[in-house]
Amino acid sequence: MLHSGLNNNNNHSKETTEKDRLNLPSVLVLDGCGISKAGDEAEVATFCAHVVELDLSHNQLQDWGEICTIVSNIPKLDFLNLSMNPLSGIELEPGLAEVFFRVRRLVLINTRVTWDTVHTLTRQTPELEELFLCLNEYDQVAESPVPCPSLRLLQITDNQLQEWDEVRKFGPMYPGLQNLVLSNNKLGSVEEDTPQDTLQCLFPNLRSINLNNSGLKRWEDIERLNFFPKLEEVRLMGLPLLQPYTNKERRSLTVAQLPSVSVLNGSVVTEGEREDAERFFIRHYLDFPEETLPHRYHVLVSKYGRLAPLAEVDLRPRCMAMLEVRWGERTETLSLRLEQTVGELKKELRALVDLPANGMRLYYIARELGSALGPEEMKYGSRALHSYMIQDGDEILVVPKTKSRTISSTSLDS
């Protein structure tokens, strides 16, 4: 069927039975097989009559004529992966490209294919929906005079695009674009003289954009994403702009800047999260000079008013407390570690009260509530003291186990 550089597939094709020919899968993966030529056209047509998806990645194809021969003999071809084939500088003649007219998904990752060839392909694929151009070392985008209105997804990650003037060229070329994946390009800005009018026209159908690991450094660039009229999903991880903030701060500030985005970095934005983020946004800018406040701040202040800073409340348990420890007729004030357990406290009190740890019962008496609630026996040796909400001045009553478990009011008054 398809010839490798060693032409070692001829014997294999001769040995293939008719049954094998008829049962080839609709998804055919031939990656890394050393294929450099199409081989016999009749063989390709026989073997691939029912193939819908063809993966020819990591081969040695470097002649568009050979590729077109393969494609022309696969009548149902919908998906074609040519990634990692050495196609740098090799142009595709427009007359040959007509065989691609059925293809809807085309993968050209790390092929170094030229923009002229890309445009030749898109002109001849009237139903092309997905195009993958990653790792092709593009630092510029050559414009095409003929748009490709059918394209819905363009993935052009891991290239060298830095200027917004290059990215904006995708708008007229692919007017139906819904998903634009630009991650791992060092794009420095989203810059337009009249961003609202221009961006609405450039990408009227864009629903998703991935700018992960780009070079955006200004909040104005994030705010301009609001001018894409149908934008719903955004990925903005690894930006220099967001490095100074914690994960929670990054997400809150970004959610507040993008009111129409319902999915951020793969996670759905709930209404509750959006309100919390918008309130956080207002408080974040409370101490900023008036002239530096972003437009979004004033919009949110008109919605929520000027919010006061949140009070800082430390909910961590106290570490130490001064308690009155009472046993028999004696009382002593001790500074106790509240992170220790009841069992550990009993061991600490052994020498003081002259009782073994397993021979004493402890009762906690809250100073302010003791007369109303009575003593609370500290039954569980593994329970931490701070769980009793102990305060300075509270009491611990130590009673030998030989005495009654019930502590009378006279004991409390002694």
From TrEMBL:
CDD domains, A to Z: Ubl_TBCEL
Pfam short name (any one): LRR_9
Domain of life the protein comes from: Eukaryota
Ubiquitin-like domain location: 313-405
Keywords linked to the UniProt accession: Leucine-rich repeat, Repeat
Full protein name: Leucine rich repeat containing 35-like protein
Source organism (scientific name): Salmo salar (Atlantic salmon)
